[in-house]
Amino acid sequence: MIKTIFSSLLLFLMGTPVMAGDIYVAPTGSDTAPGTVSAPLLTPAAAIRMAREWRRLNRQETAGGIRIHLSGGDYRLQKPLFLRPEDSGTPDSPTVICGDDGGKPTVISGGMPLDGWHKGCSDTRIPENVRSRVWVADAPRSGNRIVYCRQLWVNGNKAVRAQQGRYGEMIRMKDFDAASRTITIPTPKEDLSGAGELEMLVHQRWAIAILRVKEMRALGNGYTQVSFHEPESQLEFEHPWPQPVIDGEKGCSSFCLVNAPQLLDAPGEWYQDYPSGRIYYLPREGEDMTTVEAIVPVMETLASVDGTRERTVHDIQFQNITFAHSAWTRPLYEGLVTLQGGFRMTDAYKLQKPGLPEKASLENQAWIARPEAAVSIRHASGIDFKDCRFVHLGATALDYQLAASRSTVSGCTFSDIGGTGILVGHFPDGGFETHVPFKPLVSSDLCDAITITDNEVSDAANEDWSCVGIAAGYVSNIEISHNEVHHLNYSGICVGWGWTPRESGMRNNRIVANYVHDFARQLYDVGGIYTLSSQPGSEIKNNRIEDLHKAPYATNDRAFYIYFDEATDGYTVTGNWCPKELFGYNQPGKNMLIKGNGPKVDKATKEAAGRLRR
């Protein structure tokens, strides 16, 4: 009898959460299960829905908070996780979505495995000397469509799209002709006449353009004239800033041709054929294609926290989660011409007669769009990320877009990011001309009181070189402290937008005790720390900035440890260690205090900069 009672009690406990407020998820679970430790759910979305229902019904499990436990393993999404106002917690009862400590990492992935590799191919466009070593696989299907992608990871390493030379190598152009909308280049040694998906990556000062090639016409003198598809052709040749330079201080601007089977000639390179979708890959040394894990990304957004001005999302925490394998496909369909910081232009041109009511000296106009992001937050507060990893992502990793406040990103790592690591704040887009000073009618629309601390951001901007490690636009009371930001193609930490001395609400921003190094690897007009516009009450203090690269294809030497770009004002700048006080100034305001920086800053301050956990 006693044994029967004990068995019944044990079965009851196994079907009941270990403690109130706990929901369990595992890759081996079922979404029809009760979400207990012994009978977990299968998907994070089902767990979020269960927590939402607990809150709707005011269940006792919400007392003290809800904790969604994701056991180790891969969670391959079919659609983005969507957290909305109904998912909100409270400061005393937050919702925590966390990965298990120890064991396998908890990975929320937007990718699909690429299987069925076989060796050798019959495509005669691929160079004969490597054809027998190329492996081939059919792209997976998502829904009823072949997956077309710009990213591929093999055993966790990013493959390089087939290109001239090696990653980062470029060639100087001969001419850039806005009238004919053509770029003249040295004639490639490869016969690219049948390369229908060919792209040109253009280096233009502090940004890049990705242009889909329409036609290549040999001029017969060792040069070829290249024209491009719309909409990027008009944007590229009409916008004045930034454009390629011809016969600059250090020569002409550079380019690289990308994405043709004729260019597939180096280990680690790949090419996807159109319209078959077939993927060709030349393995690196030591890669066994019969056992590799190859991943192609399908989804651009992994998670969206999206409230409204009337009903915000609040008090949700992510802990110990890996966000991985997001896609970035836009240039496949419309190219890319960026203004700065990864913001693509939707229209731009030079004004025949300069001047706007807000800025008499303005001689160009541009309308921009925000880059895609793996994780985005809008109209929300208390949305925290702790000890998370963002890795193998096609565009922006984490984006606090609009009206986000009272949130913290701490102890996280960002690596192998196609765009910006952490993006915060408003960058007026849509129909708002980007040079017009912005001040929101509703003050809470400005991102406020966001803390970014003790994170590492590395190898960001490896697809769109004009992106940065950490970027903030129109923000107030932001703190960026004790981060290590390194190995970047452009700037490290950027705060401000608008190119304006006018009051905008940007104020009290702190950039303190960060370690920025190995930056400006490709672009110039750059700063390890970079600022724009008036930001009263702000400070740049006790940072360590070093290893400023000489971008190999720059056409001048505009690169600085700290760059106070147009109309920067309101900053106190002290105690920043750098090998020399190489600072850039572009029409700074009168309320700047800059003192005690450079190589004489004391050793203790220098060594205290960077991550708190090392």
Show unreliable segments. 1-19
Largest sheet: 21 strands, parallel
What would you say the CATH architecture of the largest domain is? Answer: 3 Solenoid
Count of distinct strands: 51
Count of DSSP-assigned helices: 6
Rg is 26 Å
Beta-strand percent range: 35-45%
What gap, in angstroms, lies between the N and C termini?
Answer: 58 Å
Please name the CATH topology of the largest domain: Pectate Lyase C-like
Broad structural category: mainly beta
Large-scale geometry: globular
Broad CATH class of the largest domain: Mainly Beta
Arithmetic mean of pLDDT: 94
Q: Give the % helix.
A: under 10%
Q: What is the total domain count? A: 3
